[in-house]
Recover the amino acids of this structure.
């Protein structure tokens, strides 16, 4: 799979995505193809002492060295007896590259985010690594939260802390709408925004719920001061949410920050096309607060 192939073919703000389906222990799993850089066969490994049990080692790919995560091990599935046909999916997100070993790969399917539902009974389980389920080609596909996997392996439950100066500013007059489907990232964002002393933070699991709430606020004569949104979410993604906000006469001047793990020129162009005011890469929590301050012209601490 050539790297150039991973550029999403769908238009900006159409609420569509391309899902790359892979196989694991007889089940079908998926990931946004925008995270996928290339597909390899079995790779030669160098073992790492005292690493996470799911990390098989590191492998060399051109000028880089990257960890390989065995998804069977991570999900506590039985080991594969014959690994000669395994595949290594090289992904990039959160400004880092990792390899993930799977049993096999299927194909890419284009679907609407409206076809993506929440995992039944998953609730707010912080360790859940499955964040959505979709019916593709007459079979269920479970969407994997690779960010959560990376955080668990790295032992990162707190990515960064706000500095004393940032936390000293009074932001109690400002309302933030946050659209983020990952419980892990949601918890970190809420903690940071609370430390930054924002007066009101309204949190939603998907773009549709966030849009409905903002439209209700507008009907009542209110509106948020800023909207922070992920891109990948069930029902409605962040690009379509941004497009809807920016096309609304009474909301188009509300700043929208796209806060996503997807880093590429293609996504930057898409964010610009739908009118996003800023795009930040997870997990830049300090930069997020500073960007909000810039967009809202928040006075500095005395």
């Amino acid at each position: 799979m050539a790297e150039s192939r991973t550029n999403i073919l769908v238009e900006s703000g159409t609420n569509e995505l391309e899902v790359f389906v892979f196989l694991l222990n007889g089940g079908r799993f998926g990931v946004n193809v925008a995270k996928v850089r290339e597909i390899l066969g079995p790779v030669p490994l160098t073992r790492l002492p005292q690493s996470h049990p799911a990390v098989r080692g590191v492998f060399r790919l051109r000028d880089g060295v990257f960890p390989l995560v065995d998804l069977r091990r991570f999900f506590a599935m039985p080991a594969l007896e014959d690994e000669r046909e395994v595949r290594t999916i090289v992904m990039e997100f959160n400004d880092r590259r990792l390899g993930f070993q799977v049993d096999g790969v299927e194909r890419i399917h284009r679907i609407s985010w409206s076809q993506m539902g929440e995992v039944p009974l998953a609730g707010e389980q912080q360790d859940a690594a499955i964040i959505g389920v979709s019916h593709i080609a007459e079979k269920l596909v479970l969407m994997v939260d690779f960010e959560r996997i990376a955080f668990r392996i790295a032992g990162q439950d707190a990515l960064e802390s706000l500095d004393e100066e940032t936390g000293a500013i009074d932001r109690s007059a400002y309302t933030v709408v946050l659209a983020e489907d990952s419980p892990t990232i949601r918890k970190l964002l809420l903690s940071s925004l609370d430390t930054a002393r924002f007066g009101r933070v309204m949190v939603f699991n998907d773009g549709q719920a966030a849009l409905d709430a903002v439209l209700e606020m507008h009907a009542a004569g209110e509106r948020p001061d800023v909207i922070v949104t992920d891109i990948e979410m069930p029902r409605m993604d962040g690009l379509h949410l941004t497009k809807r906000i920016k096309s609304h006469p009474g909301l188009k001047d509300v700043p929208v920050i796209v806060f996503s793990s997807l880093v590429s020129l293609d996504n930057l162009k898409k964010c610009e096309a739908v009118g996003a005011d800023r795009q930040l890469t997870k997990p830049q929590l300090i930069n997020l607060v500073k960007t909000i301050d810039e967009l809202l012209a928040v006075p500095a601490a005395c």
In short: The longest strand covers residues 16-24.
